[in-house]
């Protein structure tokens, strides 16, 4: 099984995924961003883009990597990865379904004010990361138009990462 943690940058996916992994037996965290980083390392580089998810190989490589890891290890993969383009989510979820891999799709949501506050205090990419801030509007649009309808929404506005992880793990185990 895959437990996919979606949501915009600053929503707490990375922190929560590590906590979820500890609560679900026989689970591992698979950061699909590493697939994108591998593509970014190709030299000479692939066609210029502002987001590696736009490269057509990224999506099937995420599916294939997840499938291969699950074939090898079994258990559950916890995938903390923002996917805000509906077409990309459909491609990934359809690819996983073709391999009969069940997916529990969660969106870590917080209101815009909370997200801005978290981004302002971010010590990983630095305070007020332009990279993270640029995804607030696309996230809000995806949430409004399709994303929240496609996932189990966990509103983290007033939750700690531990509380969010406990809610997700309980939902997966039920």
What does this structure look like?
48% of the residues lie in helices and 14% in strands. It has 174 residues and is an alpha/beta fold. The chain has a five-stranded parallel beta sheet, sandwiched between helices. The longest helix has 16 residues, at 58-73. The chain is globular and about 40 Å long. The two termini are 14 Å apart.
In a few lines, what is going on in this structure?
It contains eight helices and five strands; from the N terminus they run E-H-E-H-H-E-H-E-H-H-H-E-H. It is of the alpha/beta class and 174 residues long. The mean pLDDT is 96.
Q: Between the first and last Cα atoms, what is the distance in angstroms?
A: 14 Å
Structural class: alpha/beta
Radius of gyration: 16 Å
Assign an overall shape: globular
Mean pLDDT: 96
Which range does the strand content fall in? 5-15%
Question: How many strands, what sense, and barrel or not for the largest sheet?
Answer: 5 strands, parallel
The H/E string reads: EHEHHEHEHHHEH
Please work out how many helical segments DSSP would assign.
Answer: 8
Number of strands: 5
Helix content: 40-55%
Which residues sit in consecutive blocks of at least 5 with pLDDT less than 50?
none
The neighbouring-strand order within the major sheet is: 2-3-1-4-5
Q: Which features does this protein show?
A:
8 helices; 48% helix; 174 residues
Outline the fold blueprint.
Elements: E1 2-6, H1 13-23, E2 27-29, H2 33-40, H3 58-73, E3 76-80, H4 86-98, E4 103-109, H5 112-120, H6 130-133, H7 136-145, E5 152-155, H8 161-173
Parallel strand pairs: 1-3, 1-4, 2-3, 4-5
């Amino acid at each position: 099984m895959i437990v996919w943690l979606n949501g915009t940058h600053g929503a707490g996916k990375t922190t929560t995924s590590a906590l979820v992994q500890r609560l679900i037996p026989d689970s591992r965290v698979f950061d699909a961003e590493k697939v994108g980083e591998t593509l970014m390392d190709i030299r000479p580089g692939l066609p210029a883009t502002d987001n590696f998810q736009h490269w057509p190989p990224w999506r099937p490589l995420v599916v294939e990597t997840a499938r291969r890891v699950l074939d090898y290890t079994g258990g559950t993969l916890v995938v903390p990865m923002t996917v805000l383009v509906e077409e990309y989510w459909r491609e990934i979820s359809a690819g996983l379904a073709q391999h009969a891999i069940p997916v529990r799709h969660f969106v870590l949501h917080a209101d815009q004010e909370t997200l801005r506050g978290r981004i302002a205090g971010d010590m990983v990419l630095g305070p007020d990361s332009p990279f993270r801030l640029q995804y607030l509007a696309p996230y809000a649009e995806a949430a409004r138009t399709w994303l929240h309808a496609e996932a189990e929404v966990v509103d983290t506005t007033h939750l700690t990462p531990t509380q969010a992880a406990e809610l997700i793990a309980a939902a997966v185990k039920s």
